[in-house]
Amino acid sequence: MNTMTYSCRSSLVLILMLLSMSAMASEEYAVARENMLKSIKEQVEETSLYINKQALNPQVMQAMARVPRHEFVPSSQKRFAYENRPLPIGHGQTISQPYIVALMTDLLNVNSKSKVLEIGTGSAYQAAILSKLVDSVYSIEIIKALGEQAEQRLSRLGYDNVHVKTGDGYYGWEEHAPFDVIIVTAASSHIPPPLISQLKPGGRMVIPVGSRFMTQELLLVNKQEDGKLITRQILPVMFVPLTGDH
Amino acid sequence: MRTHPPYLSITLLSAGSLAYEILLMRLFSIIQWHHFAYMIIGLALLGYGISGSVVSIFQKSLMSRYSQTYMASLLLFSIFTVVSFLMAQTIPFNAEEILWDWHQSIYLLAIFLVLTLPFFFAASAICLTFMQYSTQISRVYAADLIGAGIGSIGIVYLLFLMFPQSALMVIGITGLIALLIAAWEFQIARRLQTSLALIAVIAVCIIAAPYLELQISPYKGLEQSLKITGTQIIEQRSSPLGLLSVIESKQVPLRHAPGLSLNATQEPPAQLGVFTDADSLSVITQLNEDSKRLSYLDQMSSALPYHLGDHKRVLIVGAGGGSDILQARFHQVPNIDAIELNPQIVELVNNRFRAFSNALYDNKNVNMHIGDARDYLRVSEDNYDLIQLALLDTFNASASGLYALNENYLYTLEALQLYINRLKPDGYLAITRWIKIPPRDTLKLFATAVQALKISGIKSPEKRLVLIRSWQTSTLLIKNGEVSEQDISAIKTFCHDRSFDIAYAPGMTEQQANRYNILKHPFFYKGAVSLLGEKRQQYLDQYKFNLEPATDNRPYFNHFFKWSTLSEIMQLRGKGGMPLIEWGYIILIATLIIALLMSVLLILLPLYFLQRDRAEPASKVKRLYVVLYFFMVGLAFLFIEIAFMQKFILFLHHPIYAISITLTAFLVFAGLGSYYSKSLCRYYSNRQVASMAIIMISILSLLYLVALEHIFSYFATAAVSIRMLTALLLIAPLAFFMGMPFPSALSSLDKCDTRLIPWAWGVNGCASVISAVLASLLAIHFGFATVIVIAVMLYIIMLFLFPAEKIARE
Q1: Which of A7, A96, A112, A197 is flagged as catalytic?
Q2: pLDDT tens digits for range B671-715
Q3: In terms of Cα–Cα distance, which of A161, A154, A204, A162 is closest to A179?
């Protein structure tokens, strides 16, 4: 009788400890997330950007604050989840640096009515961020394992307005076209023409250019009302190649 | 006691060691990237320096059982050549993460430590032999050098016969054979049983060889492509020029069309992907009657020249999988000459995938030439309407070991002059590059073109240049004549239809620039105009990247780094500034610093132990002289070797075979010189031999510095075999004398203070590593001529530092 009570008590203590640890962990994560946001804000202030902004859209920052990034990285990487750097997520893919994610989201200039197409779901972090800001997100991932993982993760965390499918993203998602905004994170030698045609006039496409761990530039494609395309090549950093005036 | 040193096993050991160094570079270039391969293997060679320190500290116990220690070293060398690599490739090092995650440095350190072992054991064996047979040092050193020469040519040959991972096993087996030979050379007891045991092990290794697999980094192009369902490798080929992997993607087509216009609608037809060293994709395109499917080739910036005239004779440099030839055929060019360095990729297109490619290179319109572009152009006297260099990336010469890094002779000033010379009147040279923001290579190329035209006596280069860009690629046109109004009109139409920007054309205004692919500032236009104007030098000085044209003396087109920009870039690291850092250069600097620090440690450590050994009689030689002499001989030897090797590349015109041949020649002739120096020592003192050799080296080096250009141009159009013979005849005397300073000094050291031999060997080993890296750095900044001059200066200083007895001879 005594031993049972003892073991009951010790398991209760154990459960309480685990609960408090996870509570502590989520509190730690929350603090880490705050720090991540602070560092992004600082970086944006220091580098007054492409459209002469001093700060990113506050709604973007709110979305970054609400999405638990640590849920989108493998367990081995969780302790780095809120550091301002890209992380490997397996299958030779990465989750982008938070600073770059925030910049790209801001560049997309979405609103609550936007319909978004994403090619290259990856960890689904970008899709999750966007889901907080838009009407619906349609995301395609070519690597089966990653696509399935992303689907499960998003449903578990309750991101209901994100729809993921596994497959070839070259032809976009015909059934839900046209889109206000398209983001292409999957590597390709050129911009697929079908994606361009699925972009609404007045719509925007953002493509990060560079290797997995180093984004060299952000390509912003604007489709004008008459269907013509203009691109802007944006360096995500304030760097002018000439000293003095030129 | 045996009177003869184990010459044969030393020769074989050295062959294995150098072959291993070069093979490791190949292997790491495949599983990782070339620059990190250079760093890792460069540092692993410090194993030679470490062996000097260890043997120095433990010399008594090691020498008391010389033959056992020697054979144990050979055995361990053989084992670790294979084991170290297998261990190293399991370490999850990811080069790109290194500035984000400091754990990567630990992984790098682990790889380096593990790879040091085989070199350590090889070097220890040689060092111990010097000490045991101290009267025959010159002969032992000769065996070492000649062995190394055999190894360097042997590995190149081996890489033709088998895949690099199998060649690894062969090197392990070479070590075991060396052990076998040593057992017989030493006449050890029970050598028959030992031999049989070894033969059995060798047999096992031969059987196991084909099962070794390479673990390629998941971030390389090949591995990324293989992640896509239905993609698999269907063919592989290996040579010193690279590992070719052909992939087929059944479910998701490759659709490789770099720089395709945003307005294009036609998708490429089916393609097979060809990766070189698991990266650098080139494609073999399916060719059938429906030529409409090739219209995407007209939607790239590289198609511009075809709209500026009816070209009858086109030269494509760097044919690869054939996309550029297809582009020419799409524009109905009747005569296409193509050049490709790698014969295996031509074989893949013409034979293995003949049906798929429709024997693209075997067509009556297409003449394929295997070889180097500059070699071909120099020898042939043909002139062309169009010479096309499209997206030709720097060739990675990893099969040259540490003797080459990033030298590129395709885009130097002299190269551009050669290309322009081979244009017919009103012909075009078209060079397409990937765009980097902020602009780097595009503007550097423009600067090189401007200067090439000026040197040829063109007064108004601005009338002969056109630069257009898409968001991905830029195409520079250099016309052999002035760009006409008609041309400008055609260019405008071409660009407008494809949403390409005109970055520069004669007579354009700033408003016309930067319209479709908008940059914050019209960087390309302003750059082009500044480089054409009077304030050119000011622009180059103010630009935060190095845009000075590369020359044959400083063939580093991809070097853009300026130290003055470093602090700004470092501040921007976390804010997306990483891609601004020039990784190749930083790695070189890091390697140098690490090598220097380790060398200091390795050189000072044995001294500490020597000091404690007060029982021994006082040394008769100045330690400082020893360290300086052997350090300098290590530096100077490699400086001259590397610098002249690069010069001979231009003469022999092949980035890999030129290096292997000249390397072998240097080593073998130096070995002969070392061997002969022993005979000389009967009549002269060691010091006199070394001094005479040094004087000859200095005279020959300086003579060559001045005369080589003339000798090269005299023989420029001769057949390859004659040029090789000339090269050998030129290298022979220089290398012969270069083989003498080191062994004479070591022999002299033996007379003064035998204990210092391993220490001197270690110093020389450290210097060799530093020398390779330093030679590249000096060449990047000052050119190869300066490297040679510095080497000569070092040799002359060495005249006064020869480690002989302190007793005056007067």
Answers
A1: A96
A2: 999 999 989 988 888 999 999 999 999 999 999 999 998 999 888
A3: A204
